[in-house]
Specification:
11 helices, alpha/beta, two-stranded parallel sheet, Rossmann fold, single chain, 289 residues, seven-stranded parallel beta sheet, globular
């Protein structure tokens, strides 16, 4: 197949580039709004440009890793978030090819007490969540055979993310206050990329919405403690605090655990535990130093 991967400069896009080398039977085109080595420029909001690119390269499948993910800025500029997270999905979905799209746990309210299933009602409470859910709807309206993977708490050795921030702050500060009343599952972007390739390589195309994160659950406090232990940071005290003490600009989900039963059953795979993913990521980050 000829596969177009958008958002290739981001966390997930970079992991797709790395993992694509293990899947040489397909040909890949990596794009983003900014050119970099191995990445071409393509504005996914530009219908004419996308259509021309798809036609020129005889694209069979689009993997959309592009998104507006800044939760706080989305509240201030929902129009831009809507353009990238939703309007672009109408463009990508209207190309007459299969699409794999990455969505988010923020489509749910965050008030749940059991892991969310794909059939559970959505109730986004932020501009980010609203625009991502709108993107899901627009994609499925244009491309009913699309695959949507909702994920959460994404990190990797690329870009800016929680893991890299906590390592940096752990080395700079004597103590850190980290919220303990928000529960979720850290997800290593390399494992999400593996899930995408699992969908691509499966002999049968299984359209629909799926949930994918690593296995297990923890709080941001637990996550930070684990990061510091793996990174060998011993001189920074990590203190558990309540969300109200942190004073977020935008509300965060208190419980954003996703049920992955459908993905595991459909594709016949086991999903790595979050600590195992974190261990692999931190090892790579320390190796870079």
């Amino acid at each position: 197949m000829n596969i177009l991967v958008t958002g290739a400069n981001g966390q997930l896009g970079n992991e797709m580039r790395v993992l694509s080398k293990e899947h040489p039977k397909h040909r890949y085109w990596f794009t983003d709004v900014v050119e970099s080595e191995g990445v071409q420029v393509l504005d996914i909001c530009d219908k004419a440009a996308v259509s021309a690119f798809v036609a020129q390269h005889a694209i069979d499948l689009i993997v959309n890793c592009a998104a507006y993910t800044n939760v706080d800025k989305a509240e201030e500029d929902e129009a831009t978030a809507l353009k990238i997270n939703a309007e672009a999905l109408s463009v990508l979905g209207g190309q007459g090819v299969k699409v794999i799209h990455v969505s988010t746990d923020y489509v749910f309210s965050g008030d749940e007490h059991v892991p969310c299933r794909e059939t559970d009602p959505v109730a986004p409470r932020t501009a980010y969540g609203r625009t991502k859910y709108e993107g899901e709807k627009r994609l499925l309206a244009e491309c009913p055979e699309a695959v949507i993977l909702r994920t959460a708490w994404l990190y990797s050795e690329y870009g800016n993310n929680f893991v890299k921030t906590m390592i940096r702050l752990g080395k700079e500060k004597e103590s850190l206050g980290v919220v303990f009343d928000q529960i979720g599952t850290p997800t290593y972007a390399a494992d999400l990329a593996w899930a995408i390739f699992t969908v691509i390589e499966n002999p049968v195309w299984h359209a629909g919405i799926y949930h994918f994160t690593n296995e297990g659950v923890c709080s941001w406090y637990d996550f930070t403690v684990a990061i510091h232990e793996l990174a060998g940071i011993k001189n920074c005290q990590v203190r558990p605090i309540l969300s109200e003490e942190y004073q977020y600009k935008t509300p965060r989900p208190h419980y954003s655990v996703l049920d992955k039963s459908k993905f595991k059953k459909t594709f016949g795979v086991e999903i790595p535990y979050w600590m195992d993913g974190l261990r692999r990521c931190v090892k790579l980050l320390l190796k870079e130093k």
